[in-house]
Design a protein that fits this description.
Order of helices and strands: HHHHHHHHHH
Largest sheet: none
Shape: globular
Number of helices: 10
Helix content: over 70%
Distance between the termini: 119 Å
Radius of gyration: 36 Å
Strand content: under 5%
């Protein structure tokens, strides 16, 4: 009996020792894991996480909107602080899949231009506002590539093309130059945004046309009326493609000088109108008969 108790007591002591050793090992593992997590947290705190493309685009647009409002209010301090935040967002974001290489370069360029305007020794509200507007449109184009705000400039550019066409038809080169200069100014405001959400070849085509139209009247032999109208027609097509408009949309063309029609022309027109009116009347009567109750 004493021998049996001795064996049991020895077994209990061995179990207790093994349990203590396992507990120490587990404790050491937990301590190492806790220390590693703490070190990892410190590393993450020291290095800002990289934003995803969509999150970065959203935060960039929000910051651009805030900066634009500060510029309009004339708050220099907050505008510069927001500019630093925009730079941080751009550097910590990956916009892969949201735009092309040309789009990334355009976005980087507009941020650099903004920082240069804000860092100028003398405050120039017009330059500030222009730079902030370009950045705002660019950030919006990145975040909303399908419906960017820059497409709202379509009507304004159509008006400029219409003025160019009127000047060409009237033979007024000064009016042409004024309209082209105004179009260039408006396009300069949206160009960075256009590059971000458009195909490079489309942008290059419009850039080439605009450069040619701006210098055509300064050549040694200025083109005639028909050539200028042809150039405007090319510009209309380039604008439609740039803004994604359909070909059969109403053109902004200026009607040419009305032709003089003789008596036969008037009779022919009257005959066509009469035929259309008769066809409409027959169709109306047929529809009335179909609607009669049985």
């Amino acid at each position: 009996m004493p021998r049996r108790r001795y064996i049991v007591l020895t077994g209990l002591i061995v179990c207790w020792l093994l349990a203590g050793m396992n507990g120490g090992i587990v404790f050491a593992k937990d301590a190492n894991a806790t220390g590693g997590a703490a070190n990892g947290g410190a590393g993450q705190a020291a290095e800002a996480p990289v934003l995803t493309g969509r999150n970065g685009a959203e935060r960039l647009e929000q910051a651009a909107e805030a900066l634009y409002s500060y510029v309009l209010e004339g708050d220099v301090v907050k505008a510069r602080q927001e500019s630093a935040e925009i730079t941080r967002i751009f550097e910590s974001s990956s916009f892969e899949g949201l735009t092309s290489v040309e789009g990334i370069n355009a976005l980087s360029g507009v941020i650099v231009d903004l920082k240069a305007a804000l860092a100028a020794a003398q405050i120039d509200p017009e330059k500030w506002e222009a730079a902030a507007a370009r950045l705002r449109l660019a950030a919006n184009s990145l975040n909303h590539p399908r419906q960017p705000m820059w497409q709202q400039y379509y009507k304004l550019i159509r008006e400029d093309l219409n003025d160019m066409e009127q000047s060409a038809a009237a033979g007024k080169p000064e009016g042409w130059k004024t309209a082209v200069s105004r179009l260039q100014s408006r396009y300069d405001t949206i160009r960075h945004a256009v590059v971000i959400s458009s195909r490079p070849e489309t942008v290059n085509a419009f850039d080439s046309w605009l450069s040619y139209a701006a210098g055509i009247t300064s050549s040694a032999q200025p083109p005639g009326r028909s050539r200028l109208l042809e150039i405007v027609s090319y510009g209309q097509d380039a604008v439609r493609v740039l803004f994604g408009k359909e070909r059969d949309e109403p053109a902004l063309s200026l009607p040419l000088a009305p032709r003089e029609y003789g008596a036969w022309g008037l009779l022919g027109g009257a005959f066509i109108i009469s035929a259309l009116g008769y066809a409409a009347y027959r169709k109306y009567r047929g529809e009335r008969e179909d609607l009669k109750p049985v």
